[in-house]
């Protein structure tokens, strides 16, 4: 994949304005699943909806309960920009968690990022249904595949 110009498709606050450390701190205050659920909904609201022209079939992820789109760009500096959307609020919040951990990183860094552990640390993995966990794993696998093919 060749680097794209400086124009970033579908910008969002995750990984820049909203950091992984902030997520961890916010979720540490959640004792009940309902509190974590509310955090996911708030994250989903902060992830801008993708314009319809970006919701292309080739970036739609299979294996998720709701329709999910995950696109990416290789920036001129060799780092990756990810963008996405989902029809489901919880799934969109889960996508926001993942974007926070991978946005703007070099492919090598992404491959070393323990995404599954982040869900454990936030107390989400224990609460998600099997099908939602499979969907999260599909997203993680897709991001890792993108990172592998983008290593320079």
From TrEMBL:
Enzyme active site: 64 (cysteine persulfide intermediate)
Pfam families (UniProt xref): SufE
Matching InterPro entries: Cysteine_desulfurase_CsdE, Fe-S_metab-assoc_dom
Domain Fe-S metabolism associated: 24-145
Protein family: Belongs to the SufE family.
NCBIfam families in alphabetical order: FeS_syn_CsdE
The name this protein goes by in its record: Fe-S metabolism associated domain-containing protein
Organism (species): Xenorhabdus nematophila (strain ATCC 19061 / DSM 3370 / CCUG 14189 / LMG 1036 / NCIMB 9965 / AN6)
Lineage: Bacteria, Pseudomonadati, Pseudomonadota, Gammaproteobacteria, Enterobacterales
């Amino acid at each position: 994949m060749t680097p794209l110009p400086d124009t970033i498709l579908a910008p969002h606050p995750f990984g820049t304005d909203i950091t992984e450390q902030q997520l961890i701190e916010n979720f540490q205050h959640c004792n009940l699943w309902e509190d974590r659920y509310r955090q996911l909904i708030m994250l989903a609201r902060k992830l801008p909806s993708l314009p319809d022209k970006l919701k292309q079939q080739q970036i739609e992820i299979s294996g998720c309960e709701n329709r999910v789109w995950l696109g990416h760009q290789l920036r001129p500096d060799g780092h990756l920009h990810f963008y996405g959307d989902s029809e489901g609020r919880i799934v969109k919040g889960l996508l926001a968690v993942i974007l926070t951990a991978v946005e703007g990183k070099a492919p090598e860094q992404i491959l070393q990022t323990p995404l599954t552990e982040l869900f454990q640390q936030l107390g989400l993995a224990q609460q998600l249904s099997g099908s939602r966990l499979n969907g999260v794993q599909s997203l993680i696998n897709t991001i890792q595949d993108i990172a592998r093919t983008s290593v320079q």
